């Protein structure tokens, strides 16, 4: 243990080194109060921004052919199990399509549902060649449906100016493509408003 004089000398020297701009009189004044408060400044740590992982651009996706279905995979029979899964998904979503179910409730659920695997038919169109096309939806994009028909033909049908119908357990729903120009992920968060009349 150090003596009191040595301790005073050490503290005086420590304060002199720690606060060189302070005069000796001020240091002595601090020592006479018997309590020394040393201010400590925390260095502000700069937060490192997390780099967002960039996905592929539309051009890169086209070059990599990520969304293209190979010709040997374009078979209607291959996607029938997908349709069965979709039917079960809709039944679970609507708590069973019972005869006493309210149509507007089912319709509102279908508007936000994933349609990959649904069998749809083009019932109305401004282009007559599209009318009657029936098949399983393989891909849904913002502006088009890719549909595989029973004849194993992949059809690209635009949503604009087309009306689609889908039937499940006796319940028939109509999709007005012109009001459906959204990606599947965007539809799930969108609030659809009831409208009296809808045109193509």
Automatic annotation (TrEMBL):
Q: Where in the cell is it found?
A: Nucleus, Nucleolus
Which BP terms in the Gene Ontology apply to this protein?
rRNA processing; tRNA 5'-leader removal
Q: Which Gene3D superfamilies match?
A: Ribonuclease P/MRP, subunit p29
Q: Which keywords, in A-to-Z order, does the entry hold? A: Nucleus, Phosphoprotein, tRNA processing
InterPro entries xref list: RNase_P/MRP_Rpp29-subunit, RNase_P/MRP_Rpp29_sf, Rof/RNase_P-like, Rpp29/RNP1
Key word Protein biosynthesis present in the record?
Answer: no
Q: Name one GO molecular function term.
A: ribonuclease P RNA binding
Return the GO cellular component terms, semicolon-separated: nucleolus; ribonuclease MRP complex; ribonuclease P complex
Predominant location of this chain?
Answer: nucleus
Keyword tRNA processing listed: yes
Task: Give the matching Pfam families.
Answer: RNase_P-MRP_p29 (PF01868)
User: Sorted alphabetically, which SUPFAM superfamilies does this protein's record hold?
Assistant: Rof/RNase P subunit-like
The entry sums up its family as follows: Belongs to the eukaryotic/archaeal RNase P protein component 1 family.
What this protein is reported to do is described as: Component of ribonuclease P, a ribonucleoprotein complex that generates mature tRNA molecules by cleaving their 5'-ends.
The annotated subunit structure for this chain is: Component of nuclear RNase P and RNase MRP ribonucleoproteins. RNase P consists of a catalytic RNA moiety and 10 different protein chains; POP1, POP4, POP5, POP7, RPP14, RPP21, RPP25, RPP30, RPP38 and RPP40. Within the RNase P complex, POP1, POP7 and RPP25 form the 'finger' subcomplex, POP5, RPP14, RPP40 and homodimeric RPP30 form the 'palm' subcomplex, and RPP21, POP4 and RPP38 form the 'wrist' subcomplex. All subunits of the RNase P complex interact with the catalytic RNA. Several subunits of RNase P are also part of the RNase MRP complex.
In its UniProt entry, what is this protein called? Ribonuclease P protein subunit p29
